[in-house]
Predict the 3D structure of the following.
Amino acid sequence: MSRTLPSFFDTVTVGGRRLNNRFVVAPMTRVSATADGVPTDAMGAYYEAFAEGGFAAVISEGLYTDLVASVANPNQPGLVTPQQVEGWRKITGRVRRHGTVFLAQLMHAGALSQVLEHTLAPSTLQPLGKPSASSGGYDAFRMPAAMTPDDIQTAVDCYVQAARNAVAAGFDGVEIHGANGYLPDQFLTAYTNHRTDRYGGSVENRFRFTAEVLTAVRQAVPAGFIVGLRLSESKVNHLSYRWEEGPAMAEAVFREVKKAAPDYLHLAAEGGSWKRESLYADGRSSTGIARQMLNVPVIANGGLHDLSLAETLLTTGQADLLSIGRAAIANPDFPEKVRWGKALVPFHPKMIKPSVSLDNTRVYFRETAEAQSLSSCFSPSDSPS
Ligand SMILES: Cc1cc2nc3c(=O)[nH]c(=O)nc-3n(C[C@H](O)[C@H](O)[C@H](O)COP(=O)(O)O)c2cc1C
C-alpha cells in the first residue's frame, strides 16, 4: 500500500488548530514600534501582507515580557502595557481575518539586551561578541548580574502575564523564544550557566527555567491557545556554536522538551542554513531527531526557500512545517508564488541593512523600483545613433 508523502499545501494540526499549509513566517525583529514599544499601523500592514500572501501561520518578532529586564532593542514592541496590548489587538484582527494563525513570540533578552544598563542572566559572565548594529542600541553588551531565585520567579511571572496579554490581544498562541542566545538559551548553554543550584549543572537543571516558563504559561492560558517553543544551537552572538555532544545533546534536550509538552518545537538556524546548523556528522539532523522523539509538530528553519531541500525535509520525516525568514521579507507572498510556480524575488542584505527596520526595507524596494524604471526609460533603442 502506498503512503502519500506530505506536500507544501497539505494541512497540519498544531495544538488542535488546523494550519492550511506548511509555510510559517519565522519571527523577525524589525525595531519599528514606537519608543514605548507600541506596534504601529505600518507593522499591521507588514504582518497582514504575509497573511494575504498565503502563509498558514505568522510568528511575530520577539516581544518583550516586562519593562525592566527583558527588553532587547530600541523600538522593539512589547506585550506588557495596555497601549501595547491594544496596538496588537488591531494587528491580530488584520492577520486572522485571512484564516492565518498568528503567534506572539515572547522574548527575554537576558544578558543580550542592547538597551538596558542593568542586565540579568544565569551567571555573571561577559557575553561573547558584539550587539548587532542593524538593530540599534549599545555597541557592547553589559556585564549581567546573576539572577537570584526571586529574579527567576519574577521572570516566569512576567512571561505568564505577557501570555495572558497575548490572549487579550487576540493572538492564537505564543512561542517561547528559547533560541539564539537569549535568556532561556543562556540557562541551557553550559558556558553561560555556571550555577550550582537547581538551574545549573545537568541538562535537566539547565532546561528547568524553560520548563517552568512553559508549564506556568500553559496553566494561565485557555485550552486551545497554542504554546510553542523555539530552540537553537547557534546564537546571535556565536553563530558557529553547535552542541558539543551533537546528537546526544539533542536527545537529552528533547527528553526535557517532551516532559514540558509544548504544542510544537521550532528549531532555529540563526545563521540561515538548516544544513550547517541542524545536520550532524552521523547524517541525522536535530529536526529529524526531534520529530522521532516528540509527538508534536516540528518546525525546521534556515534557508528553506530552497524548495528542493524544504520538500526533502517534509518527505523524509525531518519536519512538519517550514519557517521562512529573509525570503519572506523579499516575498511576503512566498506561499502563493510557490503554489503558482512564480519566480521568487531574491533576498538582498540591503533589505535589512543598515537597519532591520520596516522603513529601511521600504526604501530599498522604492529605490530598486526607481532604478528599474530609470533603466527602462533609457533602453538601448533610445540612445542616439
Ligand atoms: C531581520 C531579522 C530579525 C530576526 N529576529 C528574530 C527574532 O525576533 N526572533 C527569533 O527567534 N529569530 C529571529 N531571527 C532569525 C529568523 O527567525 C530565522 O531563524 C533566520 O532568519 C534564518 O531563517 P531564513 O534562512 O529563512 O532567513 C531574525 C532574523 C532576521 C533576518
Summary: The radius of gyration is 21 Å.
